[in-house]
Amino acid sequence: MQNEKLITNSIDTSELSFNDFKSIVINDYKIAYESRQASILGRREVLTGKAKFGIFGDGKEVPQIAMAKAFKNGDWRSGYYRDQTFAFAAGISTIKEFFAQLYANPTEGADPFSGGRQMNCHFATKSVNEDGSWNDLTQIKNVSSDISPTGGQMARLVGLAYASKLFRNNKELDYLKHFSVHGNEVAFGTIGNASTSEGVFFEAINAAGVLQIPMAVSIWDDAYGISVPAKYQTTKEDISEVLKGFQRDEKNPGYEIYKVKGWDYPALCEVYEKAINICREEHVPVLIHVTELTQPQGHSTSGSHERYKSKDRLSWENEHDCIAKMREWMLESAIVSDEELAELEKTAKIFVRNAQKEAWNEFLDSMKPEQKFVVDYISAMVKSQPELAKISSQLAATADAQRREIFVAARKAIRLSAGKPSAEREALVNWYKSQDKLNYNRYNSKLHTNGSESPDKITIVDAVYDELSKMVDGREVLNACFNENFARDPRLVAFGEDLGNIGDVNQGFAGLQTKYGELRVTDTGIREMTIMGQGIGLAMRGLKPIAEIQYLDYLIFALNVLSDDLASLSYRTKGIQKAPVIVRTRGHRLEGIWHSGSPISMILGSLRGLHLCVPRNMTQAAGMYNTLFRADEPAVVIECLNGYRLKEKLPNNVGEFTVPLGKAEVLEEGTDITVVSYGSTLRIVQEAAEELAAMGISVEIIDPQTLLPFDKTNVCAASLKKTNKLLVVDEDVPGGASAYILQQILEGQKGYFHLDGQPQTLSAKAHRPPFGSDGDYFSKPSVDDVIETVYQMMHDSNPAKYPAIF
C-alpha cells in the first residue's frame, strides 16, 4: 500500500510485510500517546506543587515522530522546549528521565541532560566525559543543550550545520573520525512559529542560505505565541510565505521549502524523508513549515489558553489534534482496531503514571537520609533547648521535604543553639559543613569544563628572544602567531567581517586566507549573532573556531547568544558539553561614540563561564591565543585598538610561548602606591608614573592580564602590603569594571586590611566619548588625570610632603 512506502522508506527501503508496517505505525502512535500522557501528568504535578514550572510538547507529537525517523547517528539537533516526543522517539530521553528533570533532581544520572539545572524538555547528549575528553559523536544522536530564550537556538544551529560543510570539503579534517563521517550529518533545528519573529531567526536563515549548509529547520506552527495570534506575529500570518524568496531555483542557490499539515502522519513521513535526503546529500538548507498544530494545554503551566482562544478555535483544536487525527487515520486504513488502540492507550497511561511515580519517589528518597539525620539531631537537642521542638516536628511532618526545607531547618537550629554546646549540636554543625562540597557539586559546579585541557593545565612556555629578534608592528606579532598555529592545527578556523580577503581591518590575518584557503579563513556578512553561533556550533563539533567581532562595541549585538548559550553551556549541562570558542575583538581608546566603548562591566556581568582576556599589547595577546588554542574552554580576547602599529619585539617562538590566564604581572615596582589597570590604559599609567617619579612618588603598576579569572595568586594584595594605597584606573563607566576589581582585591584578596587610606578608582565618564581627540581626552582617563589623582592620594596621606596642586 502507498502509505506503507511513505512511512517506512526512512527506516528501510526494502519491502515490508503489512504486519511489519502495522508494527511501525502502532509503535509510533504508542510513543506519541505516551508523550501526551506525560504532558498531561506533568502539568498536574506542577499544579499540585510537586514541580516549580512546566512546559510541554503536547500537540506537536506526530510531526516529531516523523522528524525522528530521519534523524541518524551523528546528526545534531538545536531545538527548544517543545520537543519531548522527538526525544522519546529518538531514544534520547526516557519518560522517567523527563519527570526527573521536571522535579529538578540533581542526583547523579537522574536528569542526564542538565543534572537538575534546567526545567523539563531541555535536552542534551553527552559530548564529553568528566575529564573533558570527547566522546565519539558519530555513534550517537546528538542534541545541543536546549535553551529557553525564544529563537536563541537558531544561532548555534548555523555552526552545527556549517561544521558538516567543513568536514566534507576540508580533507585535512579526515583524521577527526569521532566527529564526522565525511560531513554527512544534518543539523536539525526546531522553533515555534511566533519565535520566527525574532531577529536571530532571520539572521540564521539568511546565513544558512548564503553558506549552503545542511541545516533543516522545522517550524511548529500552532498559530499563537503564548496568547498573541499569528496576525500580530507574522506578515501574511504565514512564515513560509514570507520566506518564499529564499526558495532555490535553477539559477540561484537557496532553500528547499516545504509546507505540511501537522496532523497528517503519512504526509509528514514523506516530507521529512524527502527533505532530509536533499539536505544530507546536497548540503542544501531546508525549511519545513508544519502547520495546523494545536496546543491542548496552552503555552505552559502558568496560564490557561481558554482565556485567549475563542470557542471556535478550541473546537477546531479538538478536532484537529494530531493524535486524534492519527488515530482516525489508523482506523480508516484498517491498520488497527479500536479495541487494540483502547488497550494500547490504557497500557500507556499506566506506564507513564508508573514512570512518574518512580521518578518522584527516587527524588524524595535521595533526600530522606538527610531529612532523618537533621530531625534526629535537632530532636536530641530539644532536651536542653525546648524551643527547637517546633523545628524538628515540622520537618519530620513534611512528607515531601526537599533539600531547601531540610537545610533551612538545620541552619535555624544551629543559629538558635549558638553558645549552647552539646555533642548533638557539634554533630549537626559537622554534618552541615560536610554538605558544602556535595551541594557545590549539585548546584554550582562546572561553570568551566575543568578537564585535562583546561587553560590551567597548559604548560607555561616563556617567550624567547635573542639579538636577532626583530622589532615589528604589533599586528605582525599577531599575524605570525596565527600563521604558526594554523599550520600546526588544521582544526583552527577563523571567520568574521572583513577577516578573509583583506586580512581583518587591522591586518592580523593578512595573507592567511591565500595561504590556508577560504574554508579556514573566511569573510562573513554583518551578522554578529550568527557569527557567534557559527563559533559555538563548530566548537561543539570538535573544531577550534576564532569568531571575530570587529569592534568591542559590536559585541552587544551578539551578547544574547554569548550570555544565554555559550557562557552557560558547561554549567547548564553539568559538564557534558563544551564549546571552546575564541571570540576575538578589539577595543579601548579609539575616538568616537561607536568605536571606543569599554563595556567591560557588562561583559563581566553577563559572560561568567567565559575567560576574559585583556592583553596590554599584541605579544601578550599572542601568548594568550597560544594558551587558548591548546585549551578547551571559551574566551573573549580584547586586543588594544591603538596597539597594532606600535613596535614590539617578535618572539622567536611566537606560535609556542604561552601566557597563563589569571596570572597578574608587576610591570613596574614601586613603594608608595599600587595602581591596577589593564589594556590600553596601562600605557597611560606608565607614562604618568614617569612624571610622578620626578615628583618623588614611586608607583607600583600591576596588569591583571585577564579579568576572568582575576589575579589568582594575589599579586595585588601582596603589593598593598608594601604600598598601603590602591588606585584602579579603568576605561569603563564609573562603578563598572573598577568596582569589580575593587571587590576582587579588597574582599576576595582581603586587601582592605593593608590600606592606610581610602581606595580610589579613576574611570571614564558615564557616557561614551564624543568624536575627536578632545572628546577622548575629556571623557576617558588621561595622563594628567592619573598624575593628579595619584598625587592627591599622596597629599591626603602626607600633605606636608605633597602640598596641594589646586
UniProtKB/TrEMBL annotation:
Needed cofactors: thiamine diphosphate
Record-listed E.C. numbers: 1.2.4.4
Transketolase-like pyrimidine-binding domain boundaries: 472-646
Keywords tagged on the record: Oxidoreductase, Thiamine pyrophosphate
Family matches, as InterPro entries: DH_E1, THDP-binding, Transketo_C/PFOR_II, Transketolase-like_Pyr-bd, Transketolase_C
Entry keyword Zinc-finger: no
One Pfam match: Transketolase_C
Entry superkingdom: Bacteria
PANTHER family referenced in this protein's UniProt entry, alphabetically: 2-OXOISOVALERATE DEHYDROGENASE SUBUNIT BETA, MITOCHONDRIAL (PTHR42980:SF1), 2-OXOISOVALERATE DEHYDROGENASE SUBUNIT BETA-RELATED (PTHR42980)
Function description: E1 component of the 2-oxoglutarate dehydrogenase (OGDH) complex which catalyzes the decarboxylation of 2-oxoglutarate, the first step in the conversion of 2-oxoglutarate to succinyl-CoA and CO(2).
Protein name: 3-methyl-2-oxobutanoate dehydrogenase (2-methylpropanoyl-transferring)
Provenance organism: Pedobacter rhodius
Lineage of source species: Bacteria, Pseudomonadati, Bacteroidota, Sphingobacteriia, Sphingobacteriales
